[in-house]
Backbone:
């Protein structure tokens, strides 16, 4: 299936993925997003990265930040 | 055209002006009752009095002066309320238009059909980055680049873990405004981390 056939654009899907972190999506939104993610690799990557951003921020807020002495 | 004061137009005007002025306190009460704001009432009465004096020649004397003045005042009050409403609508619509149209930098991440350009590839070993001090420095620099309001809202939401409703209240913004702000902040941060860390550490 070509991404062209997906009703939801990546731009719209990105917005929904972001909103999903702040509010519950409506059934229609959730369904549309699910179908889009099924066919769109870029958006699946984006979703992963959003999740990572959340982990990163909470790590930054907690004491999980590596200390300067830690080797990297 | 006699010396008779009754027919002297200047004299007549003066008397009328004084009489108009004598209705001011009534007009103020009337306007205050309508507008529920003393300052606004004062402003409207001032406008009505000026209009009345300006158009005093059209006062036929058929109706009582107070009735005539009140009809002018009513018109001015409606006029004033319309102005206030349209000003409010204008203020309210300002962030609204900002909501509906995306900033240029965000538009540029997508092509005309709304697909990612370029395509988004997966980040290699993101969890490894969480162990590196330098990565957090990049993250901080990326947050610093956000507009201050967006940076604050993102920080509250993601770093402090505050619920969106509470953030909206604190920031006095609507929920949808809050979501849009967070979305843009995430888009900008993702792109910044991608460019300044993941793409560099790939090869």
Residues:
């Amino acid at each position: 299936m070509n991404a062209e056939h997906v009703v939801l654009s990546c731009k719209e899907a990105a917005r929904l993925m972001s909103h999903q972190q702040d509010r519950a999506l409506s059934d229609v939104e959730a369904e549309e997003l699910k179908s889009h993610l099924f066919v769109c690799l870029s958006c699946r990557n984006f979703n992963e990265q959003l999740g990572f951003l959340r982990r990163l921020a909470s790590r930054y807020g907690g004491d999980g930040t590596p200390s300067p002495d830690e080797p990297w | 055209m006699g010396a008779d004061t009754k027919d002297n137009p200047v004299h007549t005007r003066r008397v009328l002006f004084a009489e108009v002025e004598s209705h001011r306190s009534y007009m103020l009460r009337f306007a205050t009752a309508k507008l529920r704001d003393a300052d606004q009432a004062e402003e409207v009465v001032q406008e009505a009095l000026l209009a009345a004096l300006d158009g005093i020649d059209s006062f036929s004397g058929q109706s009582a002066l107070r009735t005539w003045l009140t009809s002018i005042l009513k018109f001015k009050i409606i006029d004033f309320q319309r102005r206030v409403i349209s000003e409010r609508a204008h203020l309210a619509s300002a962030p609204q238009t900002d909501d509906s149209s995306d900033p240029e930098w965000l538009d540029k991440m997508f092509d005309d059909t709304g697909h990612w350009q370029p395509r988004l590839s997966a980040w290699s070993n993101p969890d490894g980055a969480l162990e590196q001090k330098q990565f957090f420095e990049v993250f901080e620099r990326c947050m610093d680049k956000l507009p201050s309001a967006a940076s604050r809202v993102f920080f509250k939401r993601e770093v402090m873990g505050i619920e969106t409703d509470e953030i909206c209240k604190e920031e006095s913004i609507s929920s949808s405004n809050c979501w849009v702000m967070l979305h843009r902040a995430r888009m900008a941060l993702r792109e910044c981390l991608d460019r300044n860390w993941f793409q560099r550490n790939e090869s």
